[in-house]
Amino acid sequence: MLIRLVDIVLSFVGLLLGFPLLLSIFFFGLFDTGSPMFKQRRVGKDKKAFILVKFRTMSIDTVSVASHLASTSSITKMGGVLRRTKLDELPQLWNVLKGDMSLVGPRPGLFNQEELTRAREGRGVFDVRPGITGLSQVSNIDMSTPDLLAETDARMISDMSFKNYSKYIFQTILGAGAGDRVKG
Hints:
With 184 residues, the protein is mostly helical. Helices cover 46% and strands 11% of the residues.
């Protein structure tokens, strides 16, 4: 209950204070791709679908696959900057405010990532809201290693406390984790 309350307050404040930055990124994204927002159906809590929102970092014609399966040639110039700075994740504060996500939790996978979904099913990963950041993200574990990712997510969930929740947020803000890999 406390974590959900903190999610609501921080996401609301983040959207409010970050509005000028969000608007600027949106505006420059119009020149980069013509369509700066990216929406994608993801697997959420209890394996229910939700629409994740992010700033677009890849060309519009990129196939909807996990980042590690996409080519680096599909990343736009502005997209590269957004990925390095993690600013492409900012619109997900809306998903947190709505209750689709938490600030901290397992990264939501795609429905076509069947191996990842199977690895997570038996470990209780779908019992919690997915998150923007978490232990896997700050440890540089991405979706290219489904079993390791599911094990790490399960460990994070079992050890979740307000202290760890705060730690993962601060580690992310301070630059821990490199984000999802993209193949060369």
